[in-house]
């Protein structure tokens, strides 16, 4: 809200006249709408934690299912063992499954996101086709770990590329001043003295 008011004030003063306050109000409202749609820091932290815990949860669910536990019991046991936001969501999945909700509805309590969507899709496929849910969860966990490793590798590569710009901005002026300017000054001095 403060950022929207600041943008409106700056634009109103910069433009001036009768159109300044109008454009300022439009810019302020636009900034407010855009910033209001952004998730809070707590929501982003929760999403990061859920995405970090999801491969482990999928492995634990697969192990519980292979041990003979039904999906509702497996989700309750894993949810209690994991704790945190993903654990709470798994306990909600358990409650929904025990109350007779279809797999798509029950597993939707895990939230949204690409990894969670894979777990939900595996649960729905398992319910409708009788496919082995434990095997699908193991594959999903492996895929999620691979995705995390690839994202970390891409971030490391991106950091290596981004570090070149500040280094270039520091060394290029120094190279020009220390290497090229004396040479150009010497050449110009020789040319002008003749």
How would you describe what is shown here?
This protein starts with a helix and ends with a helix. The chain has helices at 2-15, 19-36, 41-66, 71-82, 84-98, 103-107, 114-129, 133-162, 164-193. The chain contains nine helices and no strands. Helix 7 (114-129) runs antiparallel to helix 8. With 194 residues, the chain is mainly α. It folds into two domains: 2-38, no CATH class; 45-153. It is elongated. Helices cover 86% and strands 0% of the residues. The mean pLDDT is 85.
Give structural attributes.
9 helices; 2 domains; 194 residues; single chain; elongated; 86% helix; mainly alpha
List the helices and strands and how they pair.
Blueprint (H helix, E strand, L loop, with lengths): L1 H14 L3 H18 L4 H26 L4 H12 L1 H15 L4 H5 L6 H16 L3 H30 L1 H30 L1
Structural class: mainly alpha
Query: How many domains would you count in the coordinates?
Result: 2
Net shape: elongated
**Count the helices. How many?**
9
Secondary structure: helix percent: over 70%
The oligomeric state of the chains shown is single chain
Largest sheet data: none
Order of helices and strands: HHHHHHHHH
Uncertain segments are: none
Radius of gyration: 29 Å
Strand content: under 5%
Distance between the termini: 68 Å
Q: What is the residue-mean pLDDT, rounded to a whole number? A: 85
Number of strands: 0
């Amino acid at each position: 809200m403060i950022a929207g008011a600041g943008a409106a004030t700056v634009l109103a003063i910069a433009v001036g006249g009768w159109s300044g306050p109008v454009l300022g109000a439009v810019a302020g409202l636009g900034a407010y709408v855009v910033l209001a749609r952004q998730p809070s820091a707590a929501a982003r932290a929760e999403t990061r934690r859920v995405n970090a815990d999801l491969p482990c949860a999928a492995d634990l669910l697969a192990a519980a299912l292979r041990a003979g536990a039904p999906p509702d019991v497996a989700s309750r046991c894993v949810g209690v063992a994991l704790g945190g936001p993903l654990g709470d969501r798994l306990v909600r999945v358990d409650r929904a499954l025990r109350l007779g909700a279809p797999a798509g509805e029950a597993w939707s309590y895990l939230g949204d996101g690409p990894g969670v969507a894979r777990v939900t899709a595996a649960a729905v496929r398992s319910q409708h086709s009788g496919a082995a849910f434990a095997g699908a969860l193991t594959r999903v966990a492996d895929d999620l770990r691979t995705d995390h490793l690839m994202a970390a590798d891409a971030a490391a590569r991106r950091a290596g590329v981004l570090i070149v710009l500040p280094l270039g901005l520091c060394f290029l002026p120094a190279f020009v001043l220390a290497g090229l300017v004396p040479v150009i000054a010497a050449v110009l001095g020789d040319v002008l003295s003749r």
